[in-house]
Every structure is written in structure tokens, then in C-alpha cells.
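Good morning,

Attaching, inline, the C-alpha cells for the sequence recovery test we're adding to the shared suite. The designed sequence is right after.
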């Protein structure tokens, strides 16, 4: 299984904006194990290679599970864009969530632009 281009771009953006080196390393080393499209977004389970250092709790916002807010996503096919969040479990990334701000999220996007999340 491979990441979609949007998932890969979101994880790379997150790595470039990570709060610590351990988190950046996990974003770059993660692989997808399962993906579910919901019609208004997607959930992608992440696997982190054994041996990578765990993310210190202080680097994970809002407690030990997150979420860690990723970039907002704009694309031709998205009426109002989408947001992204990554969750952790036990100091390791566990899944990526992408959710549309409108009523649909197609499986294929083009002309994708990532911007910092709205606060």
C-alpha cells in the first residue's frame, strides 16, 4: 500500500513543521497500512518502523494522543477545502485524518495547495 499524493504531501508538510526531531522522523518514516474513505474525508492508519524514538509527550498538543494539526488543503475538487490531523498512540503516530469542510471529499484531488491550519 502506498500513500496518496495528498497524504504524502500532508505528512511531509507536518515533518517540516514538527515540534521536535523525533516527530519529524516519524512523519518521514511512516507507511500506510489501511485507508478508509468516508465520503467527506479519509482515515489512514500509519505504521512507524520499530527502533525510531518515541515522540516526547510535550511535543504532542492536547495530551498524549493529539491531534497534531496538519495543513489545510485546497484543491480544484474541494468546494471549501479540507483540514488534516494526525493522532498518536504511545508516542508513535497512529493515523492521519483528512476531513472536507463541505459535503464531499473525492478520492482523487488535483491542483493541491497546502496552507497552515486555520486557528
Amino acid at each position: 500500500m502506498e500513500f496518496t499524493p495528498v497524504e504524502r504531501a500532508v505528512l511531509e508538510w507536518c515533518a517540516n513543521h514538527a515540534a521536535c526531531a523525533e516527530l519529524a522522523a516519524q512523519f518521514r518514516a511512516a507507511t500506510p497500512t489501511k485507508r478508509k474513505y468516508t465520503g467527506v474525508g479519509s482515515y489512514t492508519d500509519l505504521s512507524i518502523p520499530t527502533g525510531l524514538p518515541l515522540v516526547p509527550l510535550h511535543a504532542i498538543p492536547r495530551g498524549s494522543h493529539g491531534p497534531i494539526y496538519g495543513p489545510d488543503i485546497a484543491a480544484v475538487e474541494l468546494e471549501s477545502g479540507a483540514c488534516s490531523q494526525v493522532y498518536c498512540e504511545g508516542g508513535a503516530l497512529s493515523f492521519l485524518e483528512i476531513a472536507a469542510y463541505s459535503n464531499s471529499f473525492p478520492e482523487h484531488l488535483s491542483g493541491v495547495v497546502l496552507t497552515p491550519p486555520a486557528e
